[in-house]
Amino acid sequence: MLKIVIIVFSILASILIIMQFTDEVRWDIYDFAIAGILLMALGASLHFLYSKCAVLNTSFTIALSILVLLLFILIWIELSVGIFGSPFGGD
After folding, report:
1. Number of domains composing the chain
2. Do 40 and 8 contact (CB within 8 A), yes or no?
3. Is residue 27 within 8 Å of residue 15, measured between CB atoms?
């Protein structure tokens, strides 16, 4: 789990560094919090899948991993640009 925390911290730190050099990326503390929660949830669920569920069936684990990644991408896109027109979608 420590590796997941380090990777999430590195991703968020790189976004913070990028914000210093461009005006195209404008995140506030809430954006970092939501991104951190989403990335930690993704990392924890993939860690669980590969540590606990891998003994069941490899193809089943891979299918669940793809499903988790697609769900993460769908939520990320909805929060950033609002593809479904939800009230918490991005602008």
Report:
1. 1
2. yes
3. yes
